[in-house]
Design a protein that fits this description.
By secondary structure, this protein is α/β, with parallel strands linked by helices. 22% of the residues lie in helices and 29% in strands. The chain has 11 helices and 26 strands. Strands 6, 8, 9, 11, 12, 13, 15, 17, 19 and 23 form a 10-stranded parallel sheet that branches. Strands 1, 2, 3, 4, 25 and 26 form a 6-stranded antiparallel sheet that branches. Helix 2 crosses helix 10. The longest helix is centred in the last third of the chain and has 15 residues. About 6% of the residues have low confidence.
């Protein structure tokens, strides 16, 4: 649109109600509330926004008639703004060249921001009754497989920081129970303060939202502009039954995908990464929960790669947690079955939980790493679930009795050997979230703007 076209200019008379959804409708309420004196009765105003020519900082009236566009066509962050009003028959007009300042919507140092984190090593691992196994395994993984891996170019605390809102620093003796659930959180005897807090990997996040309401509105507008805004996606109350997230348009690494609501507003949908990886500038979910699901291929698990062709989502993940019926605590993002995130994950609200679940353990691989395979003993152990298997390996005992006589027994396996095998499987998967400063900084929003010095002109003094 040309910047002089009627549709490009915001214009109205004070006291009127402009059409909903127009720029005039956004500005008019403030003007009506500010200019209440009877002298302003019937006053009119108009606003024109025009792209600059890339060189001059002096306003030219021809800009309104020479076909200049009403948006930043040359993408140099400079726009002319011309404002005009008529009060009691007297008209005044001013113009200035405005520089639009942009900045990242989120802080790049955070790989994860949430009310809480569920760091279960696996869905069954937390049920292992041998506390020494779980405790030692967790200790071994805290350094090699942190929840968030920093960007290799920006060591902690410049990236890879986890920000929590649950009082991480308020009650140091109970840090784990206060802020991290699952297998890690159960180990209240482990002094995580030195390893996780003192080095800046975990910190208290000061606000209940990761960015401002205005910035969220800009992200919504960006999605609408690119045709990747979805008002409602199908959802399900139970995560196993969750359908794929319905996404409008053709998103790519340069677009913001915004899903306003999933199902009833408190249901799950899935970003399926099992067959192919995806990259968006950001995925924002207003009301609802989202699951990033991999193929859970433990046998074929490979080390993390920023260019993986499957099991990887690259971009900003932002759950606004705006649903009203979500119980406290509320799981709003889940990364499971071998999926990984490259970028950052943010979930608003103190009750928000981000669940990070590695692939399931491979029982057969665990047995064969400790015992000769194939063999009668191995064959007897492999059908066991991971919980029973680990406890049996560590404790030993009789596996088969014939007429009251033990014919197949297993001696206790040294704890260190069991842990080495378990850790090897988890280490292959590594951290579920990998910070990427460039990806976070690429998600830009408009900030405070200002008039370029020397460009302001009083075009038509009131007379």
């Amino acid at each position: 649109q040309a910047c002089s076209a009627p549709t490009a200019a915001a214009a109205a008379a004070l006291g009127t109600t402009p059409p909903a959804g127009t720029v005039a409708a956004l500005l008019q309420p403030n003007l009506n509330a500010t200019y209440t004196d009877t002298a302003y009765t019937g006053a009119t105003w108009q606003l024109n926004v025009c792209d600059d020519n890339g060189s001059s900082t002096v306003w030219d009236d021809a800009t309104l008639t020479n076909g200049t566009k009403n948006w930043d066509r040359n993408q140099n962050k400079l726009l002319w703004v011309r404002a005009q009003s008529t009060v009691e028959g007297r008209t005044r007009a001013v113009a200035g060249l405005v520089r639009a300042r942009t900045g990242p919507a989120l802080q790049a140092k955070y790989g994860l921001v949430s009310g809480n984190v569920s760091g279960d090593l696996t869905s069954t691992m937390k049920a292992i009754t041998n506390a020494a196994v779980v405790e030692s395994l967790t200790l071994g993984l805290l350094s090699s497989n942190p929840v968030v891996a920093p960007d290799p170019a920006f060591p902690v605390p410049a990236s890879g920081v986890t920000g929590l809102r649950c009082g991480l620093l308020d009650d140091v003796p109970d840090v784990q129970k206060t802020c991290v659930t699952g297998a890690i959180g159960a180990l209240s005897s482990i002094p995580l303060l030195d390893d996780l807090v003192a080095n800046g990997r975990y910190t208290q996040f000061p606000t209940t939202t990761s960015t401002s309401e205005g910035n969220i509105g800009q992200l919504r507008a960006q999605a609408k502009a690119s045709g990747t805004y979805t008002a409602a996606s199908a959802g399900a109350a139970a995560s196993p039954a969750a359908p794929n997230c319905q996404i409008t348009g053709t998103p790519n690494a340069s677009t913001v995908v915004f899903i306003e609501q999933v199902g009833t507003g408190d249901q799950y949908c899935v970003i399926d990464l099992a067959a192919a990886s995806r990259q968006y500038k950001a995925l924002v979910v207003g009301r609802g929960r989202v699951i990033f699901r991999g193929d859970n291929n433990v046998d074929g698990a490979t080390a993390y790669s920023p260019t993986a062709t499957k099991n990887l989502f690259a971009g900003v993940v932002y759950a606004l947690n705006q649903q009203t019926s979500c119980a406290d605590p509320c799981e709003v993002v889940r990364v499971e079955q071998g999926a990984r995130i490259r970028g950052t994950v943010n979930a608003d609200g103190k009750n928000a939980i981000v669940s990070l679940r590695p692939p399931d353990f491979n029982s057969s691989q665990l047995v064969c790493s400790l015992l000769p395979c194939p063999g009668l003993l191995s064959a007897a152990l492999q059908p066991l679930g991971i919980t029973e298997l680990v406890n049996t390996l560590v404790s030993g005992g009789c596996l088969l009795r014939v007429l009251g006589v033990c014919t197949l027994s297993l001696p206790p396996t040294p704890l260190g050997q069991v842990l080495t095998s378990l850790t090897a499987q988890l280490t292959t998967y590594g951290s579920p979230i990998h910070s990427d400063v460039a990806i976070v900084n690429a998600l830009q929003v408009n900030g405070a703007s200002g008039v370029v010095p020397g460009s302001f002109r009083d075009l038509q003094p009131a007379r």
